[in-house]
Specification:
The protein is 34% helix and 26% strand. The protein has 11 helices and 14 strands. A hairpin with a 2-residue loop joins strand 9 and strand 10.
Length: 310
């Protein structure tokens, strides 16, 4: 559905996209991740032909995307990170307006708007003004405006920022349902658990390039971390910390002021047993012990060296 090849975009001396490549298949929920400044937004704007680029090719639905490719753009929906609705219009009027940019026929548009309202759970709010909506409802309105024309491709940029857990779950369930109904989705988020929950494939960007691509499980296999062991309330000397760092399969040890020991291990059996045997042999008392398999956040941090933050 989308093919981007050797995309280069410069802003003066800044190289925002450095021979960036991307392929997205129809029917995917595709996660596009990267730290701030990695090139995600630039790549999306180039994909939508909102930015000129210096080199490369972009095809969408098998056709080259141009600024005047209105036939292609009618099949795309965009849900921006910043809520983009008209404060002077009601919920219904906003959705109708944005749907009208793609669907001029009033009868068909009326049906599509009603479907979008029902899909996003805004039936009781359609006569309200946006300023009276909660943050979660406002996000749902933002989504309804982007999907009402039933696009084949939907680009969602941080759709759950600053919403309550209930609204977040409603939005994520809606995204999965949109995908089941035939829409391919490009999804960006700073919430790794969301990406892991709904995305079938992921690209991690940094410095304008793709540095890793695959399913969540494939990405986890690319990193050194196979298990993270956390031991709470452990009183350790520096010598004991050094001993733990030298245990088999241990490659990183962290110990904070709260007396929490965090041990990063490669994939191996009995990592927890080895650490607990050492602590007990040293007479060290401790609280809870947690063992965690690698997460997408571990992947992101190990590959980019950065925390993923807003």
């Amino acid at each position: 559905m989308i093919h981007i090849e050797n995309l280069v975009k410069r802003y003066g001396e800044l190289l925002a996209l450095d021979h960036f490549n991307l392929d997205i298949q129809e029917g995917e929920i595709f996660g596009l991740l990267g730290p701030n400044g990695s090139g995600k937004t630039t790549a999306i704007n180039c994909l939508l032909a909102l930015l000129k680029f210096d080199k490369g090719t972009i095809t969408v639905f098998g056709k080259q995307m141009q600024p005047d490719s209105y036939g292609l753009k009618r099949q795309i929906g965009v849900v921006p990170q910043n809520v983009a609705v008209f404060e002077q219009m009601t919920v219904y009027e906003n959705i109708d307006y944005f749907c009208g940019l793609y669907v001029p026929e009033k009868g068909k548009r009326r049906e599509l708007v009603q479907d979008a309202i029902q899909f996003t759970g805004l039936e009781d709010y359609k006569k309200m003004m946006p300023r009276k909506l909660s943050g979660g409802l406002l996000r749902r309105l933002n989504i309804a405006c982007g999907i009402a024309h039933r696009p084949r491709l939907i680009i969602m940029d941080e759709p759950t920022v600053a919403v309550d857990p209930q609204s977040r779950n409603r939005i994520l369930e809606g995204i999965v349902e949109l995908n089941r109904n035939g829409s391919t989705i490009i999804y960006t988020s700073h919430y790794m658990e969301e990406v892991e929950q709904i995305c079938s494939r992921i690209v991690i960007m940094d410095h304008g390039r793709s540095i890793a691509e695959g399913t969540p499980e494939e990405l986890k296999q690319m990193i050194k971390t196979g298990e993270t062991i956390v031991v709470e309330k452990a009183e350790l000397t520096q010598e004991q910390q050094a001993d733990i760092a030298n245990l088999p399969h241990v490659f990183r040890v962290e110990y904070d002021r709260e007396r929490t020991l965090t041990v990063k291990c490669t994939s191996a059996q009995h990592n927890v047993v080895r650490i607990l045997n050492y602590l007990q042999g040293q007479g060290v008392t401790f609280g809870r012990v947690l063992s965690e398999l690698p997460t997408l956040n571990d992947v992101f941090l190990e590959l980019t060296g950065k925390e993923l933050r807003d």
